[in-house]
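Support reply, case 0932

Customer input (verbatim):
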Amino acid sequence: MAKPRSDGITETEERYAGYEVHDRNGAKIGKMDDLFVDENDRTEYPSVKMGLLGLRSTLIPLEMVWTNEERRRIEVSETKDGDGVEDAPTLR
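Our regenerated output:
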């Protein structure tokens, strides 16, 4: 049975809802979708809606991202087409 999520995770998801995700060159990758956490409720992967219709979500390792609060963006240390984003695991 799945463990219920803590209020802290829900608050974090709500905080970043609607943030756009951009690569290191400023190209839009997609929009923030969800957060995947480990067994201790620590965020491991933000999930990003990608594709023309936003039908797939890509998991980007947390080590590759930082938040730009002023611009309401999540920024990724790789390029959109580079290793780590296009080759990251996806959910459909």
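We compared this against your earlier run and they match. Two observations from our side: The chain has one helix and seven strands. The first helix runs from residue 7 to 16. Please reopen the case if you see a mismatch on your end.
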